[in-house]
C-alpha cells in the first residue's frame, strides 16, 4: 500500500515521437506514425474540397456522394465489402478541407484502400443515388431550419464572412431541388481527383505497404500550393432572427482574431480558457451556475489557414436573452478592468498544461498534434513555446489582451429564437 503520495512535477517539455515524412509530390506530404503498439491503422486523406470551394452546396453534395457507387459496385456493396474486412470509414467536411478516413486492422489496409480508391476514382453519379442524397439533404435542411442553434450558426458565418462570397454563402433549400450532375462531376474531378493535399497514416506497417499507398492515392495530388482567403471584413452589430414557436434562443457572438502563428495566439488561449473554455470558466460559473440561464455556454478560437476567429456560443431561454448578453458583457469588461486573481490563473494554467499532456497521449494523438501545427507551417516547437507561455503569463498580460480583443462593441452578435 502506498503511504506517501507521488511527487508532483511541472510540465516543461513534451517528448514527441515525430512522424516519418514522405513527399508524395513537392507540395503534398504523407505523414506516417509507425510506432503503434497494436494492429490498428488509421489512414486520412485530406482534400482541397471544403465548403468554401463551391457554391449552391455543391461541396457538401459531392462529399456525400463520394462512396455512392461505381458502374461495378453499388453504395451498399462498397460498404458491405469494407464491413466484411472489419473496417469502417469516416468522412468530414469543414470550411477549408474535406477528409476521408479509413480505420481497420493492418492486415486489411491495402485491400480496403483499394476499395475506397476505386469508389472515389470511378464514382458514377448514379441517378438514383444522386436523388437519394439530395432528398436526404433537403430533409435534413428542413429539420435544421427548425433548430435555433443551426440558424444562429449559419447566419453568424454569413455575416462574419460577409466580405467574401465563397465563405459567406450558406445553404438554401433550392440547392437540393434538382441535381446538377455536370457541376458535381466537375467539382469531383477538380477537388478530389486533382485535389489531394495531404495523407496521414498511423499504423505499424512495412515500408512497401506505405509505398503502395502513396502509389494508390498519390495520383490525386494537387498541383501547387493550396491558396486560402484572408483579410475578411465584417460589421460589429447585433442581428436577431426571431422564431415565434421557439422556446430557446441561440446566441453566436464573436470577431476575427489572427492565425495560429500570431505572437498573441497562445496567450489568448489562456484568456479564452478563463472566460469560457472549461467547466469552471467565468461564463459557466456566472450564467449557468449562478444565474441558471443556460445548460451550457462556452467560448473558443477557430483556426483557419490565413486567420482565426473568436466565438461565444450558448442557448438560453428566450425570456433571459437580454440578461444573458448583459452578463456576457459584464464578464468581458471584468477581464478588462480587474486583474485575474493568482489562484484562478494558477488553476487555469494547471488545467491547460494537463490538457496539453492529455492531448499528446499515444501515437494517434501525437500525429494529430503534429498535423495541427504542420498544416499551419509551424513546428513542434510550438508546443514547448505554449508550455513556456502558459507557465509565465501574468494577470497584467491577461488584462492587456482582454482590452485589445474582448471589447463587446467590437463583436458581431447573432441571435435566433
The gist of it:
By secondary structure, the protein is α+β, with helices and mostly antiparallel strands. Helices cover 43% and strands 19% of the residues. The model has no long low-confidence stretch (mean pLDDT 94).
Explain this structure to me?
- The protein has 417 residues and is α+β, with helices and mostly antiparallel strands.
- The chain contains 15 helices and eleven strands.
- The chain has helices at 58-65, 75-84, 109-121, 127-145, 148-160, 165-168, 181-193, 207-217, 265-276, 282-290, 321-337, 342-358, 363-374, 381-392, 395-405; strands at 20-25, 28-33, 40-47, 88-93, 98-105, 196-202, 238-241, 248-256, 294-303, 308-317, 412-416.
- The chain has a six-stranded mixed beta sheet with strand order 1-2-6-3-5-4, with helices on both faces.
- It is globular, with a radius of gyration of 23 Å.
Radius of gyration: 23 Å
Q: Reading side by side through the largest sheet, how are the strands ordered?
A: 1-2-6-3-5-4
Mean pLDDT: 94
For the sheet with most strands, the description reads: 6 strands, mixed
Class derived from helix and strand content: alpha+beta
Q: What are the low-pLDDT stretches, counting only 5+ consecutive residues below 50? A: none
Tell how many strands the DSSP assignment holds: 11
Strand content: 15-25%
Q: How many angstroms separate the termini?
A: 57 Å
List the total number of helices.
Answer: 15
Helix content: 40-55%
The run of helices and strands is EEEHHEEHHHHHEHEEHHEEHHHHHE
Query: Which word captures the global form?
Result: globular
Amino acid at each position: 500500500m502506498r503511504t506517501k503520495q507521488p511527487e508532483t512535477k511541472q510540465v516543461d517539455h513534451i517528448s514527441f515521437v515525430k512522424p516519418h515524412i514522405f513527399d508524395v509530390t513537392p507540395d503534398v506530404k504523407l505523414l506516417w506514425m509507425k510506432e503503434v503498439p497494436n494492429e490498428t491503422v488509421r489512414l486520412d486523406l485530406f482534400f482541397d474540397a471544403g465548403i468554401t470551394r463551391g457554391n449552391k452546396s455543391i461541396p457538401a453534395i459531392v462529399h456525400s456522394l463520394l462512396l455512392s457507387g461505381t458502374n461495378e459496385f453499388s453504395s451498399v456493396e462498397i460498404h458491405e465489402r469494407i464491413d466484411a474486412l472489419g473496417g469502417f470509414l469516416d468522412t468530414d467536411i469543414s470550411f477549408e478541407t474535406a477528409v476521408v478516413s479509413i480505420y481497420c486492422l493492418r492486415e486489411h489496409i491495402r485491400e480496403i484502400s483499394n476499395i475506397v480508391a476505386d469508389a472515389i476514382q470511378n464514382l458514377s453519379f448514379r441517378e438514383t443515388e444522386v436523388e437519394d442524397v439530395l432528398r436526404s439533404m433537403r430533409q435534413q435542411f428542413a429539420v435544421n431550419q427548425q433548430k435555433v442553434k443551426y440558424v444562429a450558426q449559419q447566419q453568424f458565418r454569413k455575416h462574419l464572412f460577409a466580405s467574401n462570397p465563397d465563405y459567406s454563402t450558406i445553404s438554401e433549400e433550392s440547392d437540393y431541388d434538382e441535381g446538377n450532375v455536370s457541376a458535381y462531376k466537375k467539382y469531383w474531378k477538380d477537388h478530389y481527383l486533382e485535389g489531394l493535399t495531404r495523407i496521414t497514416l498511423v499504423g505499424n506497417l512495412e515500408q512497401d505497404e506505405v509505398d503502395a499507398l502513396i502509389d494508390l492515392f498519390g495520383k490525386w495530388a494537387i498541383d501547387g500550393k493550396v491558396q486560402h482567403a484572408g483579410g475578411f471584413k465584417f460589421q460589429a452589430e447585433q442581428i436577431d432572427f426571431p422564431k415565434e414557436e421557439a422556446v430557446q434562443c441561440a446566441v453566436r457572438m464573436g470577431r476575427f482574431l489572427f492565425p495560429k502563428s500570431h505572437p498573441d495566439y497562445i496567450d489568448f488561449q489562456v484568456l479564452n480558457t478563463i472566460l469560457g473554455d472549461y467547466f469552471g470558466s467565468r461564463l459557466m460559473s456566472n450564467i449557468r451556475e449562478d444565474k441558471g440561464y443556460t445548460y451550457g455556454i462556452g467560448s473558443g478560437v477557430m483556426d483557419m489557414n490565413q486567420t482565426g476567429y473568436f466565438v461565444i456560443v450558448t442557448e438560453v431561454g428566450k425570456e433571459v436573452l437580454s440578461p444573458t448578453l448583459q452578463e456576457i458583457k459584464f464578464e468581458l469588461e471584468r477581464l478588462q478592468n480587474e486583474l485575474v486573481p493568482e489562484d484562478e490563473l494558477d488553476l487555469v494554467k494547471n488545467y491547460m498544461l494537463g490538457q496539453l499532456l492529455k492531448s499528446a497521449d499515444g501515437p494517434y494523438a501525437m500525429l494529430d498534434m503534429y498535423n495541427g501545427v504542420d498544416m499551419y507551417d509551424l513546428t513542434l516547437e510550438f508546443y514547448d513555446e505554449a508550455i513556456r507561455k502558459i507557465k509565465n503569463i501574468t494577470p497584467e498580460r491577461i488584462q492587456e489582451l482582454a482590452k485589445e480583443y474582448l471589447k463587446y462593441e467590437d463583436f458581431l452578435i447573432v441571435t435566433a429564437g
